[in-house]
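FYI - complex with magnesium ion, inputs then prediction.
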Amino acid sequence: MSTVARIELFHVAIPLPETFYPAWIPGFPQRENRFTLIKVTTDDGVEGYSAGTAMGRERAGLGDLLGPYLLGEDATDIGLVQQRLREISYLGWRNYWIEPAFWDIKGKLAGKPVCELLGAQPRTIRCYASTGEVKSAAERIEEVLKRHEEGFDTVKLRVHDADEAADIDQVTRTAAAVGDKVKLGVDANQGWRVTIVSDSPLWDLARAKRFADACADAGLAWIEEPLPMDAYDDLAALSAYSRVAIAGGELHSAGLPELKMMIERRCYHIFQPDAMFAGGIAQVFEVIRLCREHGLKYTPHTWTNGIGLAVNLHLVAASGFADELELEYPLSPPGWTVERRDAILEEPFVHQKGELTVPSRPGLGFTINQGVLGRYGHRFFNMDRKRLMWFSLRHRGLKASIEIDRRRKEKKAAQQAGAKGVAPG
Ligand SMILES: [Mg+2]
């Protein structure tokens, strides 16, 4: 058994080459690609990594939970990791982005890429170019043609204007100009509205229906997040009404239970859970199975960083949907570039004529660029068993620490005896 011997956490902030204005946070001048990086090391020296997108240093205290909850546990027991993250979620922290680090370890120990642990072989995946900023029709047409020249045959637009007519104008004019050679989708980013800087439009079912009609007439392939993520009744009504596929479900941090309910209610035609937010690899893999069972489709949101893209890439390879739908490839130069998106990786995921190849190396298949981590990262948490002991003594005192340690050992002994078929005493 490989146990969790050390947990390290890093704040990482990689500067962008130009200011990026994400459609989903109107008015916010984004200057950095920020995330929390976790490095888990086992007692036999295997390292697993994952990364959760961040606004700043909001996870500064997270280690106080992760250390005591995960150190000493079986690093390959994904069910146990899911249970620990669930326990942490009771306190208001939803951190399913951590779970893929344990798949990374599991794959490295087995000598297999994560997609193979999920039952599939590495393969090439067709991608769509996902734009990130709101633009006028003229600017958008130029951008779509540029992506098409680079090899993409599918591009996703963004609409986020207060004026409904401006949204429809961008979509219809772009489709009229390039729709014969490029398949187009559009993201309204209404799922998780953010108004921290500028105000943001708030769609209702009536507006979403009018937009769906316009997109159907323009020949678009899908509409993403046209309503709030928890507007279950309206989403189901819109999906029943729309002539264009309705997609969404990327950031459901409650994971499988909520997505299962939404699948059963047919809130979307295409479900897009991102494993970094919506329950980790294990829960999303079950969402994929449910989509298939209900005649619905899956292709994930991936707009975070190179590690998030890698995690979702393995799931797509194993999903059975890779030949039906393209995968999101975040690209919005000059602000959001592949080099800075994936800067933490030795080998960024550079598309080849609109395709990515799933890494075949064991685990998630990437290598952390230690130079970039050293330059743009700051390690704010580092705990092993010895440090955990001191942590426990300092925070709980000697008596409680000894008692906790004894009861944990008793639990492990009982579980091991149970596993061997001996009744625990
Ligand atoms: Mg989206």
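The CA atoms of residues 414 and 425 lie 7 Å apart. The first helix runs from residue 63 to 70.
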